[in-house]
Write a structure and sequence with these properties.
Helix content: 40-55%
Structural class: alpha/beta
CATH architecture of the largest domain: 2-Layer Sandwich
Radius of gyration: 27 Å
Largest sheet: 4 strands, parallel
Shape: elongated
Number of strands: 12
Order of helices and strands: HHHHHEEHEHEHHHEEEEHEEHEHE
Strand content: 15-25%
Distance between the termini: 8 Å
CATH topology of the largest domain: Transcription Regulator spoIIAA
Number of helices: 13
Strand order of the largest sheet: 4-3-2-6
Length: about 400
């Protein structure tokens, strides 16, 4: 859902008689002119908060000044104060409070791992709105999932390993470098050509140079396809030979590797790669797969995805700036925010500036699975005016 608790301010009633002219108050500065990127975050927060125009929205579905204050408190790391403020609002007049305030408090409990408090308020929520409440999710940094082993991202390649898949190979590199490791499942490939081998090997060499760990899974079928296309004594398709040698190392087939290496040396009159066993045991089922995607090499590359996660503060605004680079050649970019726990005032300002620039370039940015506490701050900062902001369930 797209920020259901933020409505529009009702249009003012037009008077029957024109009022007397009054002096116009100076307009607040545009957010895009504010500099959020330097200086002490607390001082910047205090300085800039008064310059941000916040429309107080009436009605049961809106949020008012108290809720905006709670969003800023949480953004500034004052979790206890934000919780007390939201509880005070609900305890004061819960029957007339919009759903957005309830979602802010429930998400705050999920973000801080307070399950008992969450379950107490969930009962009140269900009574107030007469529908099923959101489920409990432990989104705290101390949650049990955070301590479980994590696997590298998994990319399943399907279709033809050919020169038509250049953009997909580039995407593999982006995913791998972002995570520091990657697992590539080759079991769904149905064909291969020399250009595809060359481009795939170029990605593998680039990742090896940057010390990114690469695991190739289910290599057998591709190795057999390559075996049927290489001819000893015919110095053609060099990258096919070299990719097959790479696959045999991941399969752990040393004897077959040595035989092919001899044929390679005779055919190309150069030394073959040395044997380096790379076969790995299959990962346990208790590990968390951090990212999994099926990549059809026959289809055009899908819109790329950018991830914002953890806590974004003034010390980590470079991550937000990378978003602009990711969107450079795209008309639409989806930003996954399911693991974004908090964003401070300074970073939210930087995000607004970047998104406003991208919107002016005709690009659409979608922020998905944003928690209600972060979403409230983004509304205060006007980010929802330059991007689509979608709440998590």
């Amino acid at each position: 859902m797209v920020l259901p608790f933020f409505g529009k301010k009702p249009a003012p009633r037009v008077p029957d008689v024109a009022p007397e002219p009054v002096a116009q108050a100076p307009e607040p500065p545009e957010l895009s002119t504010l500099d959020f990127s330097v200086g002490d975050p607390t001082r910047v927060l205090a300085h800039c908060a008064g310059q941000v125009e916040v429309q107080e929205i009436g009605g049961g579905s809106g949020i008012g000044a108290a809720y905006e204050e709670a969003a800023v408190l949480y953004a500034n790391g004052s979790t206890v104060e934000a919780e007390a403020l939201l509880n005070g609002v609900l305890d004061g007049d819960a029957s007339h409070t919009g759903e957005g305030v309830w979602m802010m408090l429930l998400d705050l409990y999920r973000l801080t791992g307070q399950r008992q408090s969450f379950e107490t308020r969930v009962l009140d929520y269900a009574t107030r709105f007469e529908r099923s409440p959101p489920p409990w999710l432990d989104l705290s940094s101390e949650s049990g999932q955070a301590t479980r082993p994590r696997q590298a991202p998994l990319v399943n390649l399907a279709g033809a390993l050919s020169g038509q898949a250049a953009s997909q190979f580039e995407q593999i590199g982006v995913i791998a470098k972002k995570s520091g490791s990657i697992r590539i499942d080759l079991g769904r490939l149905r064909s291969v050509d020399v250009t595809g081998c060359s481009q795939f090997r170029a990605v593998l060499r680039e990742l090896a140079a940057e010390r990114v760990k690469v695991s190739l899974l289910n290599c057998g079928a591709l190795a057999e396809m390559l075996s049927g296309q290489v001819r000893p004594g015919q110095a053609e398709g060099r990258d096919m030979w070299l990719l097959q040698l790479e696959l045999l190392q991941h399969l752990g087939e040393q004897e077959r590797f040595e035989d092919l290496a001899v044929d390679y040396a005779i055919t190309f009159e150069e030394s073959p790669p040395s044997w380096e066993p790379r076969a790995e045991a299959q990962a346990t089922t208790s590990a968390i797969v951090t990212h999994e995607v099926v990549m059809d090499l026959d289809a055009p590359a899908a819109s790329k995805e950018f991830v914002l996660e953890g806590e974004l503060t003034s010390a980590s605004v470079e991550k937000i700036r990378q978003l602009a680079a990711q969107a450079a050649n795209l008309q639409q970019l989806e930003v996954e925010c399911a693991q974004l726990r908090r964003i401070d005032f300074v970073s939210a300002g930087t995000l607004f500036n970047i998104l406003a620039t991208l919107q002016a370039q005709g690009k659409q940015i979608v922020l998905r699975n944003v928690n209600a506490m972060v979403a409230a701050l983004l509304r205060v900062m006007g980010v929802d005016q330059v991007a689509v902001v979608m709440l998590r369930g």
